[in-house]
Amino acid sequence: MKTKLVFVVLFLIWTTCEIQVKGAVFSDTSSLYQDLFTNYSSDLRPQADLSQPIKIGIKLYLFSINNFDEISGILSAVVGISMQLKDFRLGWTPSSYGGVNTLTVPKDKIWTPNIYLIDPANEMKAIGDGKVIGRILFDGSVIWSPGGLVQSLCNVNMYSFPFDTQVCTITFTLWGYLSAEAILEPLDNITSVDSLFYTENGQWEMKKAILIPLDNGSRSSLLQVQLTLRRRALYFVINMLAPILLLSVLNPLVFILPVDSGERVSFAVTIFLSFAVFLTLINDNMPKSSEPMAAISYFLIVIMCMSTLIIVFTILNLYLHFKEEEKEVNKKLVLLLRYLKLSWLFKRYRMKGTRITVSSKENNKCSENRTDNSNLEQIEREKTDVVKMNWKSLANEYDRILMYYYYVLIFFVWIILVLLLSV
Length: 423
Description:
This protein is of the alpha+beta class and 423 residues long. It has helices at residues 2-22, 26-37, 234-250, 264-284, 295-321, 331-340, 343-353, 360-388, 391-422, and strands at 54-69, 74-91, 102-105, 115-117, 134-137, 139-144, 147-153, 165-174, 182-186, 204-213, 222-231. Strands 1, 2, 3, 5, 6, 7 and 9 form a 7-stranded mixed beta sheet that branches. A 4-stranded antiparallel beta sheet has the order 4-8-11-10, with no helix packed on it.
């Protein structure tokens, strides 16, 4: 029993000594720091063969989409850029320095590239600053991960507003270096953007984020980040499309509003002004140079033109309604009303449905007699309609038929809008 206890104590003492021998101490790190940077210059490009470019691996982190102003076309995002390169002057053997295999140093002590935005929204400056700490691995790999708020210009296509999807690009470049001296490339050929710590935006949903090297078949110092953003349309559906739909349904009801109420014209003008207000609200959310224009803008223009015609027809119907009853009803207006009712179309279908099978001679005679009789009946009916119809009944008939026509037009206009926005 005592022998086992002695072995256990000796094993613990040996393990403690072994850990102390292999554990790194401050003197090891200080010695390594002095050895690495005694003759080191951060101004020189770390490439043993200067005829070859130094490859800088990029990994992008997307933290949030702060704002996307589609009117000015400015995308504001918080990103982090992890850059990794090989510096042949900064390698060491960990066992020679107490097992130290990594070292953190200020950014100014090592060579790091300056990465700029090609299409900034304001001033052009390098990503990150000198306060970001760099990290050196024992094999000479240098990792530097700056980050911050970037503001880039974006071409906006508002055709499908508010169900639009915008594709914005953020282009990075190595400023001051030719493509023969330094190139950017996705780290480990990973083209996806890391969105593990991404915070969702309330207005835009991020659908895709990828890295695209702009090499065009040759080496390049350009790297493009492509962000695909889809608008969250519920707000605009509730606050814009739904009221416009309700107003377009209310608009033709002016034709069944009693004439004696005296509110017909004011009702139609109020609906027209409401459409004008919504057109102004939508234009406030549009860039002035949007190409093409939003489909909903064309839709509102068509709806406003229809609303204008409703005002015109309302005034004309009021004129017919209050016309002197002693005057004879215009036959052309009665004939136009009959065509709007499509009575001629229904009559043709009725004539096609009544077929009589007789001999050819009898058929010709019957057809002539039937034609003559139908013509006489039609003339008599027109005369009777003109005699029986007065100006008030004519105006009422026009009100009813115009309401039907406008509801059919509004239905087709909305169907066309839905088809355009779904493309």
